[in-house]
Write a structure and sequence with these properties.
Helix content: 40-55%
Number of helices: 14
Distance between the termini: 49 Å
Radius of gyration: 20 Å
Amino acid sequence: MNTMRLGKTNLIVGRSGFGALPIQRLSKDDAVRLLHKARDSGINFFDTARMYSDSEEKIGAAFSGDRQAVVIATKTLATTMAGVLADLAVSLANLETDYVDILQLHNPATLPDLSDQNGSYAGLLEARQKGMARFVGISNHSQEKAVVAARSGLYDTVQFPLSSLSSDKDLAVVTACREADVGLIAMKALSGGLVTNAATTFAFLRQYENVLPIWGIQRESELDEFLRMEEEPPLLDTRMWKLIAKDRQELGGRFCRGCGYCMPCPAGIQINWAARMSLLLRRAPYQGFLTDEWNDTMGRIRDCTQCGNCRSKCPYGLDTPELLRMNLDDYGRIRAEHRA
């Protein structure tokens, strides 16, 4: 496993990290086996969050007996010092450890007020002072907030969505973190599964020495794919650039990444799937989405009350109700074509 220095933390980590959100969908035994294989294969950075249901507990079960071998980062949605410390106490119990390597604020809508002695940033500092967190960071889907955070000198790491689809504006985060010596953790590297050729994003991000991608891994076959690429990194050559250009053409513009920050929906719509169904049908194995069950799930879009909750919560500023309507129309058309 190739390694890198994660900015001013001076942590030495494998250049492929493990995004542990998907393991909440595995049994505990299967998750532990997958985590152990990742560690034994050289992956030593594991990213989770308080909101990822039992992801922390599974990481704790896997690594409590070998804590020094791994770097663990978690996140809190809390907006107060008391909330941050309370979340961290739960995280530490779940992780079966007395410290995390990195404690991150989880996609705050606004950057913390440093003058608020009871605010979330004060909570990060308190956790670090007490030895409950070695370093502090922030995750965000806003390019502007990520750049400000990187340049502020307040954070050791910044987590931000980066992939082969990233715009020049998004890539400015890479420069800002490098100049400030802030560790940069790249989430959503496969854009919620819409980048179906992982080699394109792997090769694209590998050109940046200060970027640590965290691959969302749920299956052993997925882990094996990234391990093979670590052994023989794909080249960012003319062929790869053509594949990236094709993805950018098909996925260009404003599309749902499936992050789920819009959820839950008062009308019961599975927005993080429904808002990108058209793309999933065109870019992923489509048969599983053409069932009667999925037809009923997509039909819930008709129950949308236009409350605006999803629109206001979307970190990418999408007009989510309109996107849902378009996906419903497209879904019906594609399903009819395949059933004809």
